[in-house]
Design brief:
Number of strands: 0
Low-confidence stretches: none
Oligomer: single chain
Mean pLDDT: 85
Radius of gyration: 18 Å
Number of helices: 5
Distance between the termini: 31 Å
Order of helices and strands: HHHHH
Strand content: under 5%
Largest sheet: none
Helix content: over 70%
Shape: elongated
Length: 165
Amino acid sequence: MADKNIQGQTEFSTKENLWLTVKYFLIAASAGAIQLGSFSLLRLFVFNEAEESYGWSYFISLVLSVIWNFTINRRYTFKSTANVSRAMILVFAYYVVFTPVSLLGGRAIVNASGKAEWVDFLVMIATLLINGVTEYLYQRVVIYRGTINTNDLAQKDKSTQDGQE
């Protein structure tokens, strides 16, 4: 368990902020690929005839992408030792709000479109973009505030940089 007294980096240069953001969105893009891929497979092979095919496909693919995004970004982007249980609860709280709004809103748009297949994917992509931006801000400001750059990778990077100076 991480030492609760460890304080992470709280001030970042423009370059550090940019790199943190780029890393987050590269990993989020891989989560988006997982979500789009699993959504497509579920739509094609599992829920293709179901009345609520958009809803179930969206929900399952969202869960898969969230697990990936949370795990990888916590370790490699935010490099945080923040309490995992607390961080997961906070991510869950974000999705308690985001999921129903995006699911109901997405389903309403899909149903209003006459159920054209391409609209499902357009709505999914728009939702991915909104999710990426809002979740990044939430993780950066709420979940990992004060614990960024506290894990073993960050300490190793810091010792490497100190050795080069």
